[in-house]
Amino acid sequence: MNVLVHVLQTRLISSVHYISISEHGYTAEQVNDRLISITAGIHTYLHKLRDRLRDGGNPVAATLYEKCLDKLDSISTRNEVVSWFELDEKLKDFSSSGLSIFDVTSLKKNLLVDVVALLLSRGCTRVYNFELLRPPNHDESDLFHSLDEAEFTYRSLSESRHVGVAQKRMLANFLTLRQLAVVTSGVTAFVLLVQVFFGSTWLQTSVVVLGTATSISGFFFFVIRNAK
């Protein structure tokens, strides 16, 4: 809930999509029922929290949640179940506008890795995580209205130094593969021209040997590079 309150307070949001990923062993219906229960519970809790704070003499905090509820009522909200097998395509659709942000705070570890890796591979860096900077108390003191700014952070995962290194490495591998494909195509075209116009000559033999050596070198280059 802290994520939702923070984002509604600090960003211009036109819609909220609650996404649940359907994994092995769970039907889409089971996941959808749970998602509906969770999202309905969030809205119900926000109303109760606002009323309790207002009645308890904390109008500032009550107003905070009142504004969040008003915002949710004024924008589009949607529940969606995404199959694990369709995750990459769905993330492509969600990220294609260049405006969406992705919060991964509540994801399980295995799904967190999947989602972050897929988004970064598509050049999407708008991936965030809400994190308490102190041990949780598991009570109302952990809720947004009770937190000082120094007690939490809304972190962009793409700003991690190691994530940046990984992105550069993926880009370098992609460019190298593309460059090798271009060179291979060029060598192949040259060999075909020599075969057509020069027949069985020393030039043909030299070019075939060169092309074979280039292919073998390229293969071993990628084997060694990917082993690092």
How would you explain this protein's 3D organization?
By secondary structure, the protein is α/β, with parallel strands linked by helices. Helices cover 61% and strands 13% of the residues. The chain is built from 7 helices and 5 strands; from the N terminus they run H-E-H-H-E-H-E-H-E-E-H-H. It has helices spanning 2-10, 28-55, 59-74, 87-95, 109-121, 161-198, 202-227; strands at 15-22, 76-83, 102-103, 127-132, 152-156. The strands form 2 sheets. It has a 3-stranded mixed β-sheet, covered by helices on one side. Strands 1-2 form a two-stranded parallel ribbon. The two termini are 42 Å apart. The mean pLDDT is 82.
Radius of gyration: 27 Å
* Ends apart, CA distance between termini: 42 Å
**Major sheet: arrangement of strands:** 3-4-5
Mean pLDDT: 82
Strand content: 5-15%
Biggest β-sheet, characterized? 3 strands, mixed
General shape: elongated
Pattern of helices and strands: HEHHEHEHEEHH
Which consecutive residue ranges, at least 5 long each, have pLDDT under 50? none
Helix share of residues? 55-70%
- By helix and strand content, what is the structural category? alpha/beta
SS summary, helix count: 7
**Total count of strands:** 5
